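Field log, afternoon session.

UNIT: design team B
ACTIVITY: writing a sequence onto a fixed backbone
BACKBONE:
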């Protein structure tokens, strides 16, 4: 036997209302529930930007592509080492001028002497403090001493020029010099003797001796002969030289 149970109509309505309220409240609750935010994707780590390899900068001078043949080293001209200039040394004349005085026997003034050497400094006064007026470059040139002061001698040369020289520059050796014109060197001490040689002006002769008379025996270049006293300069008229 089947029994059908029917719900009263009001109950059906109530149930329907209740079901509708539940359904309506569900969406409201759903709206109030916090929405889960979607997870933000983490940014991918930044990759370093690819850098292009820098091309090597060309050097100021491009490298030669071919190895040139090495040049043979140039021959260097050897220069002689520069020799240092030697220190200036005093000349023989300057050294002699400052040398200690050599005692001399008392000799007459005036008298003839000759230059011992050359050069010879001819000074304006008797001492190295006086300037050099000129320099004689004639060894054996006869000069006449006309005054003395300590170790200094005032001289007169064949031209008549006067100056002062140190005593060490002169010697007692007797010489003469041909003056004026050429003179004949004679074989004997007479005017009619043969002529051995003709002596030009400026020739220096060595006086060998002058005996009493007008002639003197002289030597030049190994040749001896006779000259009159007035044919050369360097002896006095009445002087006797043995």
């Amino acid at each position: 036997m089947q029994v059908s149970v029917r719900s009263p109509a009001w109950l059906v309505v109530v149930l329907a209302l209740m079901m509708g309220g539940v359904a309506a409240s569900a969406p409201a609750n759903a709206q109030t529930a916090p929405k889960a935010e979607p997870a933000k994707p983490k940014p991918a780590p930044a990759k370093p930007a690819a850098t292009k390899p820098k091309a090597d900068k060309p050097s100021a001078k491009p490298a030669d592509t071919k190895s040139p043949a090495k040049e043979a080293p140039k021959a260097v001209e050897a220069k002689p080492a520069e020799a240092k200039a030697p220190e200036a040394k005093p000349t023989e004349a300057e050294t002699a001028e400052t040398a200690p005085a050599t005692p001399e026997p008392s000799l007459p003034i005036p008298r003839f002497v000759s230059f011992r050497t050359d050069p010879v400094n001819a000074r304006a006064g008797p001492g190295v403090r006086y300037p050099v007026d000129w320099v004689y470059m004639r060894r054996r040139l006869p000069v006449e001493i006309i005054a003395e002061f300590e170790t200094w001698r005032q001289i007169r040369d064949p031209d008549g020029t006067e100056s002062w020289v140190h005593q060490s520059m002169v010697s007692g050796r007797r010489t003469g010099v041909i003056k004026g014109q050429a003179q004949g060197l004679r074989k004997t001490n007479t005017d009619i003797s043969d002529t051995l040689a003709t002596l030009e002006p400026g020739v220096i002769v060595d006086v060998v001796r002058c005996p009493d008379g007008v002639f003197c025996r002289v030597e030049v270049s190994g040749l001896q002969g006779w000259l009159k006293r007035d044919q050369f300069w360097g002896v006095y008229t009445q002087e006797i030289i043995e």
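LOG NOTE: The first helix runs from residue 9 to 32.
NEXT ACTIVITY: expression trials, pending approval
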